[in-house]
Amino acid sequence: MHFVLSGLSIILIDLLLAGDNALVIAMAVRALPKRERRMGTLLGALVAVVLRVALTAIAAQILTVPYLQIAGGAFVVWIALKVLVDASDPPDAAPAPGRFLQAVWYIVFADLTMSTDNILAIAGASKGHVGLIVFGLCVSIPFVVLSSNLLADLMDRFPVMIYFGAAILGHVGCEMIFADPWTTRTFHAPDAVRYAVEAVVISALLIGGKLITSARVRQARKESTDRGIPST
Fold it and tell me: pTM for the complete prediction?
């Protein structure tokens, strides 16, 4: 019974804390053709789970590593900006060589740096039982894969969701940066300052992404006109 309850606790932890991970995966694979999205999502999730199992054994030490969450938070914000910039491209446009592996790398790195709280919670719920850790994380894979692919498909149908997703990732990235041991030890930022910084980062992210996207669209239309191709 203890084993079953611990397993259920780990599954619940995964489901509660996997929303941000599913969103960042959806943003990372959105530029891939639809037939490659599921493969990229599954491969990235599997690699991240294997690494998470290994890191759970040293979960307490992970949270004390300075600059790790700063790097992860900045990377998450960068992914959000990159997706906004790529929003002018149709989802099924021919991908650049290596984009598939690039998306998998994004998934793995972002998942690991975003999952320190998840790793610590699972380590506590499992009481160090490796079988429970593997079971709980493996059960979470279908949920993350399905939800991230669903989000990516919704972004295709409703492009405005890309901006909502980018805003959420901006919030997540700022939270990670402020949660880093070096940041908390150095700045002791009150909540009002944190909210203000988050608002500035999210605003800059959305406005900058929109401006860059608009510039790319204008440039593409200009090039099409120069080649005598009617713009759509």
Answer: 0.72
